[in-house]
Structures are given as C-alpha cells and as structure tokens.
Amino acid sequence: MKKDYYDILGVPKESNLQQVKKAYRSLALKHHPDRVEESKKAESEETFKEISEAYGVLSDPKKRQMYDQYGHAGIDQNFTSDDIFKGADFSSVFGDSGLGDIFGSFFGGGASDIFGGGGSQRKQRGRDIQYEVDIKLSDAFTGVEKKIKVPRNEFCKKCDGSGAKPGSKSKTCTTCGGQGQVIMQSGFFRMQQACSECSGSGKIITEYCPQCHGRGQERVTRNIDVNIPAGVDDSSRLRVRNEGEVGAAGPGDLYIYIHVLPHDTFQRDHNDLHMQLPVSFVKAALGGEVSIPTLNGNVSMKIPSGTQSGKLFRLKSKGMPDLRAGAKGDLYVRVMLSVPKKLSTPQKKLLEDFAKLSGEEVGHVGDSIKEKIKKVFK
What we know:
Shape: elongated
CATH architecture of the largest domain: Orthogonal Bundle
Oligomer: single chain
Number of helices: 13
Distance between the termini: 77 Å
Largest sheet: 4 strands, mixed
CATH superfamily of the largest domain: DnaJ domain
Order of helices and strands: HHHHHHHHHEHEEEEEEEEEEHEEEEHH
C-alpha cells in the first residue's frame, strides 16, 4: 500500500501551501541523490521520487481535495502519473538555495522536463564564486572601495565559447538527432536529460579550438572594484551580480564574505562599541574632562567627582552605523583606575598625608586586616 502523502512530508492535514512547500524543500534537499553517499543513492532516489509525488498532489488544490476525499483511489482513478506533476510549482520551492536547479542536477533538465514537459535543454547560469576580504574596523565604519583580483572561467575569446576551431564545421549529433536531449523512462517517471554524447549541444565538434582545447572556456583573472558599505559586520556577505563564471544563460554572481579585523581599542557588539579608559586616581576623585577616541575623531567626556573603577558611561550615536537603517549605535566607555607604578618622594608624602587625614594606616598590614585574612582561611 502507498504511504499517506501527509505522513511522507511530515505535515498535518490542515497545513497550508507554504507549510507543504517548506516540508518538501527540506526533505528534497536532504534526500537528493547528489547529496548522499554512493551506497545510499538508490534508496535516496526512491525517497526523492516519493516525496516529489506527495508534493505534486498536496500542492495542487484540486488533486489535494480529491485525495482528502477518496485517498489514493481518487488520485489513481482521475489522474495519470504524468498528471500528478502537471501544474505543480517545483522551481519556486528552492529559490536562491545556492544549489542551482536541483532537478537539473538530478534528471538533467528543469522540473517541467522531469514530469512530462518538453522543449530544448534548459540553459544554466554560470557558477557562483566566493571570495573573502579582510577590512579594518575603521573601513567598516566609513565604508570602503576594494580592488580585488578574482580568477574565474570566461568564454574563450578565440572560439567565442563554442569549443570548435574557428572556421571548422560541426556535425549533428546522431544520438539525440541534434535536440541536445534524450528521454528516459523509469516507471511512471519520464525523464528528459542532456545527451551525454554531445553534452546537450546537439552538435559534435570535429576540430577542437587550439586555445581552450574544446572546453569553450579559459581561466582569466579579473580586477573587480567592490564597494563595501558602511556598517558591514564580520561574516557579512555582499552579492555582486554577474561577476561569477560564465554560463549559457548568463554569468553567475560573486559573493564577497567580509572579515573585520580586531581593533586595538574597540570591541564590537552589533552596532555598539566598547572600550576601557584608564583614569588616574586624582581625575576619578576630583572629576574633570577627558578626551575619548572614537572612529570619527576624539570627543570630550565629563568624569564626575568620585567616579569608581568599573563605572560605565554611554556616548550616544558614537558607535557603528547600521548597515540598512544608517543610524549609529552607542559607544560604551568603562573607567578603569590607573595606579602609577612609581612615585616620587613628594608624591609619596602627599599620599601618606592623605591617608592620615582619611584615618588609613599605610606601610604595613594592620592587625584588623590580618585577623580578617586568618578568618577567611580557617
């Protein structure tokens, strides 16, 4: 007996179309034969076909209503195996997943080609490229233009990407009759895939291009200007359209992954910045103005008299700009008491006088303190 379509996708009967799509997408990516070990490919292929059939029914209101009312009998009596997949929107399920056309990689064509569609071979975009760029925190604050060198495949200039020697003639592929595709039947699945003899071109090259040796592409390093906007964070990803590798349906995209280098003074927390400010005992006790470094120049900040070590001050809008909104975060300044390592004789005398006025003994550990220490270790 066939399994219940809802159980196959793991969704309740009251689930909406978006829930059905989400469940199918997750399962299809998990069980796609190209994403499993070689020993599990056969099992994965059967599972992939099973969940695709379930999605073909449950994503179509008419078929779903028939299934809810009569079960598998209602589907088998009213729809052929090809009809199950007609009208099902497979392509929008995966979106910009970075996997390209999941059906194209499995069956050699688009979703419409798998389940009874037709036409010529579906053209593919070029491969996307990833590139990492290191920038300073100050560059992330202001934005910066970077010149990068990206190696990529481009169409061979000598043969214009055909792979054939200029002036030579190609012959029609006898395997596919020049269609570039062959149709294979597997149970109720009719699969249309690229011809392996001519690689889907429909033509057989008689003389290869001497520059690219028939590949139609050559390796080229391009200098590309990339505008990195203000506010980018570590691991931010920028997409530069059409700067990937070439393809029959157009070039892929270039993805820039940003790495923001650590800063000597500031630690970043989203759009906020944190820093520690060494302050002398005199300044902390008496108060006064101090100069605070920011990524946009120094600013003045008032230290109130009696400020304790560890006190946190906030300077509004002195942090990082938001990548989308533009508003800036805050700068948090933590006061850290700075104790001098060496004192002159007059300085020591003044501090001793201060201690006497405060009723504090200096120069040795008092008996009361000794007693407290003993109690801790008892």
